[in-house]
Amino acid sequence: MNDDTQNEGDKPRSATIVDVAKRANVAIGTVSRYLNGFPIRRANREQIEEAIQALRFRRNATAVAMKTDVTHVVGLLAPSFDEFHGAMLEHLSRALRRDGRALLIYCHGGDTRLMEDGMDYFSTQRIDALVMSGEDHLFDRVDQLIDAGVPLVLYDNDIAGLKADRVFVNNREASMHAVRHLLDIGHRRVGLVSGDLEDSAAHGRYLGYCDALEERGIAVDPRYVESGHWTILGGNDATRRLMSLPQPPTAVFSANYVMALGALRCFKDARVRMPEDVSLISFDDAALFGLYEPGITVVAQPINGVAQSIADVLERRLRSERSMPFSSTNLRCEVILRGSTRPV
Amino acid sequence: MNDDTQNEGDKPRSATIVDVAKRANVAIGTVSRYLNGFPIRRANREQIEEAIQALRFRRNATAVAMKTDVTHVVGLLAPSFDEFHGAMLEHLSRALRRDGRALLIYCHGGDTRLMEDGMDYFSTQRIDALVMSGEDHLFDRVDQLIDAGVPLVLYDNDIAGLKADRVFVNNREASMHAVRHLLDIGHRRVGLVSGDLEDSAAHGRYLGYCDALEERGIAVDPRYVESGHWTILGGNDATRRLMSLPQPPTAVFSANYVMALGALRCFKDARVRMPEDVSLISFDDAALFGLYEPGITVVAQPINGVAQSIADVLERRLRSERSMPFSSTNLRCEVILRGSTRPV
DNA sequence: TTGTATGCGTTATCAC
DNA sequence: GTGATAACGCATACAA
C-alpha cells in the first residue's frame, strides 16, 4: 500500500481531505469541520492534526471557491504600475491580505482593447470584487459585472452612475489650495497641465484651479489650460505650448506627477530656470521630488489611506450585507511646500 | 418557468453550461466541446452561440481549474512595488497576459513573517507557477512548493540549489563596467553602497566592483564598502559613513536606485556637491534620474527583457514538458552616462 | 459527432 | 459531534 512514489517529473497529486480522513480514521465531513473551526472531539482533532502534518495536506482553495462561490481574490484593474499606482498596489495588497484576500492584477496601459479584455478576464475569473481606477467607456462592461454580483470599488477616477463604492481624494479642494498658494506668492499667470478633462480626477483638479483663480477675481483663460493626457510626453508638450505663449505663465500646476516629469524635461530643454523663471507645483509626491534641486512642491495624496479605505469598505461589503448602501469616501490631500515655488 | 427574477441584492446565480445546453437543446458535453474549440455541427453551434449570448454565459474559471488542475494564474512574490518592481510587474503582467495568464500578487515588504505567510498562501491557492525575487531563508518553503509541483522562476535575486528557472541580469559584469568607468575618469577611491551581501544580486555587484578595482591594481579596501541594506535610509547611512572616512571616496557606486536616493539625500544634507565633490553612479534607472540636475549615471536593467524572458520560460515549461531542463537566462545591462560622474 | 455518466476537492445537509 | 452523501460547474472517457 505504499503510495509515496510520485510520478517523477510530473505533477504529483497532493493530499486531499479524503486522504486525511482515511488516515485519521474519521469521516471526511469531520475533517472539513475541523478545517473550518467547528468543534471537534479532542481525540479526533489530534488524529486529524497528525494526518495533516504527515500528509502535508493543504486545503485546495480552488475547490473551496467552487463550493462556496468565494475566492478571496480581488481583481485590480489599473492603467500602469508607475510610482503612484505601484505604491497604491503595495498598500492595498497589504491591507487586503490582513482580511485574507489577495489581488489579481490586470494592467491595461491605457489601451482600450486591453481594458475590455481585462474586464472579460475578470468576469470569467470569479473574483470576489473589483477595484479599479475608472475608465468612462468601460461603463457597460463594468455595469454587467456588477449585475453579475461582483462588488466594485472605484478609486482615483470615477465612472458616474455606477452602483459602486467610491474612495477618492479631494481633488478640487486640494487643487484649489495648490493654486491659491501660487496666487498667494504673487503669481497671476498660472498654467495648468491637465489630465484628460473627461476623467473626473482631471475635471476636479481643473475645477479647483478655476476656484482659486476666480476667488481672486482672475478670469480663467483657456489658453493657460493644456491637456497633457496624463503622460510624460503629453505633459512635456503641454508645458511647451504653455511656455511659448506670448505671455507665458510664471507658474505651472501639473495635475499629476507623470506630467510634471514632462514639464521638468521641458524646463530643462528650454533652459527655463526653476524657480527663478517659473514655479512648479505637482499633484502626487514622488520619491525624488524631495531630493530634486530645488525640491518640488506637491499635493501629496494619502495613498495608504486610500488603500486602507478600499480594504475597509470591501471588508464590510463582503463580510456583511452585500446590499448595504454604497459609500463614498473622500480623503484629504496635503500640500507640501518645497523649493520649486517662489514669489515672482 | 420564468426564472429570470434574481434575488434582489444578493449574488445572482449566473448561467452554467447546463443552462446553455438546455436552452440550445444539446447535451452539456456538446457545449463543453464547443467552448474548447472542438468541431461541432453547424446547427448546434448556432444554437449554442445564441444561448450563450442570451444567457450571458461566462465559463466559470474556478470549475475549470478544479477539473483541469490549471488555473492560468501565476503567483508573484515581491518585496515591494517601488519603481523597479512596479515596472517589472507591469511588463510581466502584460507579457503573461498574452499567454492567457494573470498575476496574483503578494507583497512582503522585506518582512520575514509576511514572506512565509505569502508562501503559505500560494501553496493553498493552487497557482500554475511562482515568480519571485529570491529570499534565502525561504529555501525550505519554496522547495516544498516545487515538490508540490509548482514551477518556480527566480528573478532579481537567486536562491542557490533550487530546481528552478532563472532570469537574471549580468550583475557582475555590469558593475565592473560601471566602476571601470569611474576609474577611467581618474577616480581612485570608489565607495560601494552595497545591498545585503548574502543576496546574490548584492554579491554579484560587489564582485564586479572588486573586479574593476583589481583590474587596475587597486586593492579592495573594506572600509569603502558599506551595506545600505537596499533601503533609502540604509543607503543614506552607508553613504554618510563613507563620506566621513578620513579619506572619503571621490566616487560612489550604489547597488540599487533606492539606496542612491539615500545617497543623494546625504550629499544634499552634507552640502557635498555632485559631481564637483563626488561622482555617483547607480544601479537601476529611475524616471527622474535623467531629469535630475546633473543627470545621474546609471546601470540600466533591461526590465522589459527580464519580464519577457520570464513569460517565455514559463510558457515553455507550462505548455510543454514540465520536466524540461532548468534554464538560466542572463540579460545584459546598459551603462547610461549622464552628468553625475566626472573626472576628478 | 453527440449524449451520458463520472469525478475533481470541498462544503453542507441530513439523519444518527 | 459524527458519518454518509449530494451538490458546485465543468471536462472527459465511453458508449451510442
**pLDDT averaged residue by residue of chain A:** 93
What general form of chain A does the structure show? elongated
Task: Give the helices and strands of chain A as they follow along the chain.
Answer: HHHHEHEHEHEEHEHEHEHEEHEE
CATH topology-level name of the largest domain in chain A = Rossmann fold
- Helical proportion of chain A? 40-55%
- Ends of chain A: how far apart? 87 Å
Find the count of extended strands of chain A (DSSP E, 2+ residues).
Answer: 12
Major sheet description of chain A:
6 strands, parallel
Looking at the chains present, what oligomeric state does this protein adopt?
A: homodimer
Largest two-chain interface: A-B, 63 and 63 residues
Low-pLDDT stretches of chain A: 1-9
Q: What is the highest CATH level, the class of the largest domain in chain A?
A: Alpha Beta
What order do the strands of the largest sheet of chain A run in, or round the barrel if closed?
Answer: 2-1-3-4-5-11
Domains of chain A, number: 3
Strand percentage of chain A? 15-25%
Structural class of chain A: alpha/beta
CATH homologous superfamily assignment of the largest domain in chain A: Response regulator
Count of discrete alpha- or pi-helical segments spanning 4 or more residues of chain A: 12
Task: Please tell me the CATH architecture of the largest domain in chain A by its name.
Answer: 3-Layer(aba) Sandwich
Radius of gyration of chain A: 26 Å
